[in-house]
Amino acid sequence: MARNVSNTRKALVTAVAWTIGILIFFPILWTILTSFKTEAEAIASPPSFLFFDWTVENYVEVNSRSNYPLHFMNSVIISIGSTLLGLLIAIPAAWSMAFVPAKRTKDILMWMLSTKMLPPVGVLIPIYLLFRDFGLLDTRIGLVVVLTLINLPIIVWMLYTYFKEIPGEILEAARMDGAGLWDEVVHVLTPMAIPGIASTLLLNVILSWNEAFWTLNLTAAKAAPLTAFIASYSSPEGLFYAKLSAASTLAIAPILILGWFSQKQLVRGLTFGAVK
Amino acid sequence: MATAHSRSAARLMLSPAVILLLGWMIVPLSMTIYFSFLSYNLLMPGMEEYVGFLNYEYFLTDPAFFAALFNTLMLVGGVLVITIVGGVALGLLLDQPIWGQGIVRILVIAPFFVMPTVSALVWKNMFMNPVNGLFAYLAKAVGLQPFDFLAHAPLLSIILIVAWQWLPFATLILLTALQSLDQEQLEAAEMDGASFGNRFIYIVLPHLSRAITVVVLIQTIFLLSVFAEILVTTNGGPGYASTNITYLVYAQSLLQFDVGGGSAGGIVAVILANIVAVFLMRMIGKNLEA
């Protein structure tokens, strides 16, 4: 039974929703707009909204004056590297728990989750000292390892909830048809598991890209990803609003786009399957 | 049909993840516990000695600890109130038929994908700055004195920034929960003459209670560890006005090099987080059985 909603009411709700949506989005929009202004226009009073001399000078400047491409690459390598490494470890684990559940599977899952509840400051000092002693401070490999470990519980959990939805009967049917273990894995399970793995990958790249505790504490210059690079604008350089905006826009654009594709998985991944 | 063979294969597949997480949890955590009983400063290597609970005594009686504990609670509580109330309202709004719903949803969710250092710096410089910020301009436009947010209300400013980042998360989850609400039940109540307020209190809110609990618990875990937003805006100041426990531990260990004291603080933070975690785990565990 569809409810009859008058168009007036719909128009009103639409207007309110759009206003609020634009207000919430406004800081991002303002950052993007400011990135195309000159420094003088960026702090002009009254501020100009659309009618200013659009320029891409800030983007050129950010790329040439700082080591922007290096930090961007660090972000890419660290987020994708830690995600792939995490998947490599988590896929077999989630797979075995979903398809060959044992008595203690639930306990293991809950315990994995509990490691995620450990506040990072609880282990900051040992990790910092170990990294210092092993020469891992300010290295990409060090950050890849740490981010893999802190996101591993989420990866295992997400994969587990997806794998759980693959019906076990389908395996038996394949077995009846004479499929060996290899055929089972390659032709039956893998195609069904790929969407879940893809969503997990997407969400985890987003989380790692934006991670800002370990990246800030364990890097200095060489391996600093964008989170740490942008933080350096908190010094007097932050007064250059247009350049800050250009650097920020470049840093958030890829993830905004990825994020919009992953809305649904976000709910599932971040609530550990408690809300679907 | 798990055979003994497949079971041992399963154990083999599971073990790398278990061993790594076990190592990640036990090795550094026991080191932190060990350090917390030492007098250990990075500037004086080789002078470590066992001091019992002295670090805890210092940390827990330090006025900075009380300030930080208070700030942590205000930060978590403030952000939770804003995001839950705002999230329920936005969820209800976006659950209505509107034109361009997909686009509005994208606009609302966007802040969640902005990295913490970017959102904090954008708010700090381009909105809250008392000279060049947009808020200062708006204040002047209506004849008010510009307000220096981060100097005079540092904690509130950080609460607003963090709430902006987490509002999308709460909205998205509550909206997802709302969409599974039985519409016919609502219509029946409406036909029986239940007002909007009554429908909300007796049907919508009970339906949302589980999702709200999940949002509260998960956000609390993350909000207890807010760090980057404080680092790039106020550095915990002025004084300790915007220092939370996470930032206090960071400052003590990596700025003052007091490994012993910082470790004691880290353990205190772990205990606080565990209190929340117990509740969260119970919720999720229940769901796992269902």
Automatic annotation (TrEMBL), chain A:
InterPro entries: BP-dep_ABC_trans_perm, MetI-like, MetI-like_sf
UniProt keyword annotations, A-Z: Cell membrane, Membrane, Transmembrane, Transmembrane helix, Transport
Transmembrane segments: 12-33, 72-96, 108-129, 141-163, 184-207, 240-261
Gene3D superfamilies registered for this protein in UniProt: MetI-like (1.10.3720.10)
CDD domains xrefs: TM_PBP2
Gene Ontology BP terms: transmembrane transport
Entry annotated with the keyword S-adenosyl-L-methionine: no
Pfam families: BPD_transp_1
Membrane topology reported for the UniProt record: Multi-pass membrane protein
Any single Gene Ontology cellular-component annotation: plasma membrane
Annotated localization: Cell membrane
Domain ABC transmembrane type-1, residue spans: 72-262
Family to which this protein belongs: Belongs to the binding-protein-dependent transport system permease family.
Name by which UniProt lists this protein: Carbohydrate ABC transporter permease
UniProtKB/TrEMBL annotation, chain B:
Superkingdom of the organism of origin: Bacteria
Membrane-spanning parts: 12-37, 64-94, 106-123, 155-178, 199-228, 264-284
PROSITE patterns: ABC_TM1
Keyword field contains Manganese: no
Listed Pfam families: BPD_transp_1 (PF00528)
GO terms for cellular component: plasma membrane
Domain ABC transmembrane type-1: 69-280
Protein keywords: Cell membrane, Membrane, Transmembrane, Transmembrane helix, Transport
Family indicated by similarity: Belongs to the binding-protein-dependent transport system permease family.
The name this protein goes by in its record: Sugar ABC transporter permease
Organism field: Roseibium limicola
